[in-house]
Amino acid sequence: MKKIVLSALVAATFLGTSAFVAAPGTSANATRVEKAAAKTYKVQPQLSTLGWEGKAVTHGHNGTAQFTGGELMVNGNQLVGGTVTVDMTTVKTTDIKDAESNTKFMGHLNSDDFFSTAKFPTATFKITKVAYIKGAAATANNANITGDLTIKGKTNSITFPAKVGVKNGVAAASGTATVDRTKYDIKYGSKSFFEGIGDKAIYDDFTLSFNVIAK
Predict the structure, then answer these.
(1) Do the strands 49-56 and 60-75 form a parallel or antiparallel pair, or are they unpaired?
(2) Residue 55: which of 204, 208, 210 has the closest Cα?
(3) What is the model's pTM?
(4) Residue 145 · residue 171 · CB < 8 Å
(5) Is the pLDDT of residue 144 over 90?
(6) Which parts of the sequence belong to the Lipid/polyisoprenoid-binding YceI-like domain (predicted)?
(7) 3-state SS string for the chain
(8) Which has the closest alpha carbon to 93: 103, 79, 78?
């Protein structure tokens, strides 16, 4: 792939129970009350976007994937948890224009060298913590989101900055997450596992740029 970016939220990618994180000093009882008070907003796949980008020593590729559903948990005007699901069979590249080359590349991306989409057709991201950044500008990232990302049946915790907000019955989260593919058994072309591959190496990190809309 020579570059893969799937994030999360995205970012992707996501199926599980939502989580609520209490503010410092909040009692256990208050946490339960606030969690119970949280409202469920359904993710709108047709309004949400997910982009990926991966790089190799000499080149890179980028593309898109599609969310299939999920939910964001909202308390008042704050995002407090949620889950998102990505259909891995919808991953495609947008920078390879030649049809034959594109088909060959996507065949490799779907193979066991990379995402094994026949065996693992979905990826999920489950939010475990939303830490708001005090004093963040209205147009900037205002929270750090932590959650469990599952790809190819492997689950790891990742944290990334995001801009989140709730207004007029719509919850939104956007940002870019960096993912170490080797933690998800995607080791093809990695210098961390294969020595002497020189300029054929593919970097371990790829990025996921997401904009999740829920109502």
Answers:
(1) antiparallel
(2) 204
(3) 0.81
(4) no
(5) yes
(6) 40-215
(7) CCCCCCCCECECCCCCCCCCCCCCCCCHHHHHHHHHHCEEEEECCCCCEEEEEEEECCCEEEEEEEEEEEEEEEECCEEEEEEEEEEEEEEEECCCCCHHHHHHHHHHHCCCCCCCCCCCCEEEEEEEEEEECCCCCCCCCCEEEEEEEEECCEEEEEEEEEEEEEECCEEEEEEEEEEEHHHHCCCCCCCCCCCCCHHHCEEEEEEEEEEEEEC
(8) 103
Do residues 141 and 162 make contact, with C-beta atoms less than 8 angstroms apart? yes
Q: Which of 99-108, 154-163, 167-176, 186-195 shows the lowest mean pLDDT across its residues?
A: 186-195
User: Which pLDDT tens digit goes with each residue over 83-134?
Assistant: 999 999 999 999 999 999 999 999 999 999 999 999 999 999 999 999 999 9
Spatial distance between the Cα atoms of 184 and 129, rounded to a whole number of angstroms: 21
Measured CA to CA, the distance from residue 41 to residue 120 in angstroms comes to 26
Residues β-bridged to residue 128: none
Cβ atoms of 15 and 149 closer than 8 Å: no
CB-count burial class (<10 Å; 0-12, 13-18, 19+) for 50: buried
Residue 135 CA to residue 197 CA, distance in Å, equals 46
Instruction: With beta carbons less than 8 A apart as the criterion, state whether 133 and 141 touch.
Output: yes
